[in-house]
Specification:
two-stranded antiparallel ribbon, two-stranded antiparallel sheet, 4 helices, Rossmann fold, about 110 residues
């Protein structure tokens, strides 16, 4: 899911401050391919998971360091690729980095 708590990060880092400022007030945005979509906030989804009997067990950030990479970017060479994956994996489970990730994975477990 798109991280609504960090929706201003991508446009802000790209220098699009009008879009960044708008992102603070709305979960709706236009994605990279021009479609109107929405983002979700972790706290709201945590409440939803609890309400359906699957409380949040773990959560991870995704695309902490790679969100601004062009869609058609080639993966880096082998040693660099391993460092990138290691950095992304560590950031995705470490505060405060995971909280500003472009995407989140939430894991709720029943029973």
């Amino acid at each position: 899911m798109r991280n609504g708590d960090a929706l201003a990060m991508r446009p802000g880092l790209a220098g699009d401050f009008d879009t960044a400022l708008a992102a603070f007030d709305s979960p709706s945005y236009t994605n990279r391919i021009g479609l109107p979509v929405r983002a979700d906030r972790r706290e709201e989804l945590t409440e939803t998971l609890t309400a359906i009997g699957a409380p949040l067990r773990a959560w991870y950030g995704v695309r902490v360091f790679t969100d601004l990479a062009p869609d058609d970017a080639e993966p880096p060479g082998s040693p660099e690729w391993e460092r990138l994956l290691t950095a992304e994996e560590r950031a995705g489970r470490t505060d405060p980095y995971r909280a500003v990730a472009a995407l989140l994975h939430l894991c709720g477990v029943r029973g």
